[in-house]
Amino acid sequence: MTDSGFTVDVDQNQYLPEGGRDVSAVVTVMSGADVSVAAPGAGAGSAEIIIIDCSGSMDYPPTKMSQARAATAAAIDVVRDGVGFAVVAGTSTAWPVFPPDGSMAVASPASRAAAKQAVNGLRANGGTAIGQWLGLSRRIFAGYPAQLRHAILLTDGKNQHETPEQLAAELSQCEGVFSCDCRGVGTDWEVKELRTVSTTLLGTVDIVPDPAGLAADFASMMENAMGKQVADVSLRVWTPQTAALKFVKQVAPAVEDLTVRRTQSGPQAGDYPTGAWGPGESRDYHVGVEVTPAGVGQEMLAARISLVAGAEILGQGLVRAIWTDDEALSTKINPRVAHYTGQAELAEAIQEGLEARKQGDEETATAKLGRAVALAHQSGNEDTAKLLAKVVDVVDVESGTVRLKKKVEDADEMALDTRSTKTVRVKK
Questions:
Q1: Going along 310-413, which residue ranges are E strands?
Q2: What is the SS3 assignment for 191?
Q3: pLDDT tens-digit readout, 38-89
Q4: Within a 13 Å sphere around the CA of 426, how many CA atoms are in the beta-carbon half?
Q5: DSSP label of 43
Q6: Would strands 15-17 and 312-324 be described as parallel, antiparallel, or unpaired?
Q7: CB neighbours of 65 closer than 8 A, spacing ≥ 6?
């Protein structure tokens, strides 16, 4: 354990056959029970914004709006004393519900009570423009000095009152400013749309099919946010001039491709965002490197992987390549690399299968979802297997032979889609 409270472990098969180029490694990052921000100083601490959809559809059924108010109150209750917080309401525009002047309140028994009273007055009426909601939240965060900035966004509908380009432009301005967990209530919202928001803003996305489940979900998201201690941690990958980085993906607890999110941090080095960390967390990353082959018996450093926060290096691991003519060594597949390659394929097969089903291409849908059933079974991903069984009838689990169900509940299909990227860990 480094004194930063983080450890970095690398799992790989270092041996390549003669002429071999591809090096793959799984990097496990763990935070200890004692991680904390190196220097609290100015701008330390946390800030939270709860963004509530108040569009007209939130009144159908009326329990949606009442449960959204209750869920917001439940989340406010969890905000720790001294943490900055605000509540934003969204329709085709956005406005500050609390504090009403668009600032941040400092959490205390009195401010939490006042916020809940303000939330109680929210009514459903109007359209949906998620970019507007995020934009207001970004401006509120900008006026408050905090290192850890997190938002919860709830919607029940599609982003109909602005263009996809407007949403994308706002997202690029919010990226790196705050993280955002997204929840869709009911079944009239777009999984892809909310996933774009949560992925860009390093958060989670999920469906809450029944509004009655909102309060518990909101409280648990806020609990999780309150546990974060270290902001803006990056994975820095350095490769020598004789190597090129192919990809960097988070593979546990969920599949998230970080490859395109690289920011150059020095000669031959790039940083990939991992967001905020709390104590006792563990995440796995799959790193792929292409190296220039060397002679049999030669060894090279294929990559150096560091965990960094600001200027501080929190931990480090090395990825190596050794060329050998011993086939037994070079053909051995590292079980963790194999497992996560399968989990990434599982997520892709589900999303492609559901998309084909939507387009009416039953043949592709059956093949892809069948492949997903086999992969979920092989990797022991029971949660995903259960979700798949609500969309297909499984004929033979080993071969992935399935039949598409004639009648599928929208909520079941959306749950499978939103949770398709959740992975199971492989035992070391």
A1: 312-324, 392-396, 401-404
A2: helix
A3: 433 334 589 999 999 999 999 999 999 999 999 999 999 999 999 999 999 9
A4: 22
A5: T
A6: parallel
A7: 54, 58, 59, 122, 123, 124
Q: Which of 219, 217, 216, 222 is nearest to 206 (CA)?
A: 217
Q: Helix crossing, 130-142 with 191-200: angle to 10°? A: 20
Q: Give the span between the Cα atoms of 135 and 183, in whole angstroms.
A: 18
Q: Mean pLDDT over residues 18-23, rounded?
A: 96
CA-CA-CA-CA torsion sign (126, 132, 134, 140): negative
Q: How are beta strands 269-277 and 179-185 bridged, if at all?
A: unpaired
- What average pLDDT does this structure show over 293-310? 96
Give phi and psi for 216, each to the nearest 5.
Answer: -65, -40
Tell me the pLDDT tens digit for each residue of 324-353.
Answer: 999 999 999 999 999 999 999 999 999 999
Query: DSSP assignment, residue 5?
Result: S
Tell me the CA end-to-end span of the chain in Å, nearest whole number: 18
Burial of 266 (0-12, 13-18, 19+ CB in 10 A): exposed
> Is there a contact between 67 and 214 (Cβ–Cβ < 8 Å)?
yes
* Helices 214-226, 63-78: inter-axial angle, 10-degree rounding: 20
β-strand partners of 181: 152
3-class secondary structure, 85: strand
Q: How far is CA 282 from CA 6, 66, 164, 278, 351, in A?
A: 10, 36, 34, 10, 26
- Are 204 and 198 contacting, i.e. CB atoms less than 8 angstroms apart? yes
Q: What is the pTM of this model?
A: 0.93
Rounded CA-CA distance 274/278 in Å is 12
Query: Please, what sign has the CA dihedral across residues 60, 221, 212, 71?
Result: negative
Please name the helix (run of DSSP H) or strand (run of DSSP E) that holds residue 112, with its range, or none. Answer: helix 109-120
| Residue 234 to residue 265: CA distance in whole angstroms | 11
Cα(233)–Cα(317) distance, integer angstroms: 16
Mean residue pLDDT of the chain comes to 94
pLDDT of residue 3: 63
Tokens encoding 378? 């092989």
Dump pLDDT digits (tens) for 133-176. 999 999 999 999 899 999 999 999 999 999 999 999 999 999 99
258: which 2 tokens?
Answer: 């970080």
The answer to whether 149 and 98 have CB atoms below 8 angstroms apart is no
The structure tokens listed for 177 are 């400013």
